[in-house]
From TrEMBL:
Annotated keywords: Oxidoreductase
InterPro entries: NAD(P)-bd_dom_sf, Sc_DH/Rdtase_CS, SDR_fam
Lineage of the organism: Bacteria, Pseudomonadati, Pseudomonadota, Gammaproteobacteria, Alteromonadales
Annotated source species: Paraglaciecola algarum
Family: Belongs to the short-chain dehydrogenases/reductases (SDR) family.
Protein name according to UniProt: YciK family oxidoreductase
Gene3D superfamilies from the UniProt entry: NAD(P)-binding Rossmann-like Domain
NCBIfam families per UniProt: PRK08945.1
A family per Pfam: adh_short
Length: 247
């Protein structure tokens, strides 16, 4: 696994938006970036979870975070545009964006996937990333160097039976990252992807109820990958997918 130990306050004065910041990997990521000095914008569905992350960050003397309660399933272009305007008004620019939230949806035979379920997975996992990235591009351009991180999966590299919409959406996520990386090559915005690999979270427990969670790595163990890709002063990677499982 990538081991990366950046300077203690390397994210001072940086503003980073994380989707799905109330739980699992996104929660740990928000606290970790705040520990390194970032002002984090916590976006998620359940307000109480976002407030708990907010409290944890204040407890460790991190910069005061912002909370954006938003269900990606129902959000429209106007929601993202309003959010982008608020970010520019409040912070002037955006230095980092982590597309982390995902919806697994139906796990089962392809023949049984309903159109409703297919659309719900694509709405949360793909359409929201398209609209949000597009709305936030002006704020990302205003930063000296900004980094956008998408979240992939093993199932976005090799399709797997019964994982229909989720697996296809993770291929599409890699595709969106590559299109953007190519289009914005040699600019101030980098686009990359992280494949966390099996990690002890509630999404994992729901998807693999028979698995022993104690045998899985915790979100803490993969924070190096996210720190590395957010360190725009020390790396110029773009268009890459980093696999957090690689030994
Ligand atoms: P969790 O379920 O633990 O956390 C996901 C977060 O996303 C939650 O805070 C959840 O909010 C939020 N979220 C889900 N749907 C929406 C929505 N419609 N609108 C807004 N927020 C939403 O997941 P993980 O931490 O495990 O997963 C994080 C990322 O890592 C995902 O992209 C996943 O695909 C990927 N991944 C995870 C692996 C693993 O083994 N854990 C393996 C490979 C990839 P709320 O709690 O309020 O519902």
């Amino acid at each position: 696994m990538l081991k990366y130990l950046p300077k203690k306050h390397f994210l001072n004065n940086k503003t980073i938006l994380i989707t799905g910041a109330g739980d699992g990997i996104g929660k740990r990521l928000a606290i970790t970036y705040a520990q390194y000095g970032a002002t984090v914008i916590l976006l998620g569905k359940t307000v109480k979870k976002l407030e708990d992350v907010y409290d944890e960050i204040i407890k460790i003397d991190g910069p005061e975070p912002a909370i954006v309660p938003l269900d990606l399933k129902g959000a429209t272009a106007k929601h993202y545009q309003d959010m982008a305007n608020t970010i520019i008004d409040q912070f002037g620019h955006l230095d980092g964006l982590v597309h982390n939230a995902s919806f697994v949806g139906h796990i089962g035979p392809f023949g049984q996937i309903t159109e409703e379920d297919w659309n719900a997975v694509f709405q949360v996992n793909i359409h929201s990333q398209f609209l949000m990235t597009q709305a936030l591009l002006p704020a990302l351009k205003k930063s000296d160097k900004s980094s956008v991180i998408f979240t992939s999966s093993d199932l976005g590299i090799k399709g797997k039976a019964y994982w229909g919409p989720y697996s296809v959406s993770k291929f599409a996520t890699q595709g969106m990252m590559q299109v953007l990386a190519d289009e914005y090559e040699n600019t101030n915005i980098r686009f990359n992807c992280i494949n966390p690999g099996p990690t002890r979270t509630s999404l994992r427990a729901k998807a693999f109820p028979g698995e022993d969670p104690s045998k899985l790595k915790t979100p803490e163990k993969i924070m190096s990958c996210y720190l590395y890709l957010m360190d725009s002063d020390n790396n110029t990677d773009t268009g890459k997918t980093i696999d957090c499982q690689v030994k």
